[in-house]
Amino acid sequence: MATGTEAEAAVLYVLAPGGMLTAAQISEQAQLTGWSARRAIGQLESRSLIMATPHTSRWSITPRGRAAWATNFRRYAQ
Prior knowledge:
Shape: globular
Number of strands: 3
Structural class: alpha+beta
Distance between the termini: 15 Å
Strand content: 5-15%
Helix content: 55-70%
């Protein structure tokens, strides 16, 4: 089970290449449980590191999230 920070890093890792993914796609690609993925998504969104696309339930990384990935979370990449 991933800790909060590891789960957040996994979500940013999956979103870093770009594109918009659903929570289920993020969970699958990041190899997280649904609960862990949704919690990490909520935490990252609250810090404006990722954003939801209105009406499509898809998430994408923000410029701020890309900067955080590059400086703080990259060490968690597998």
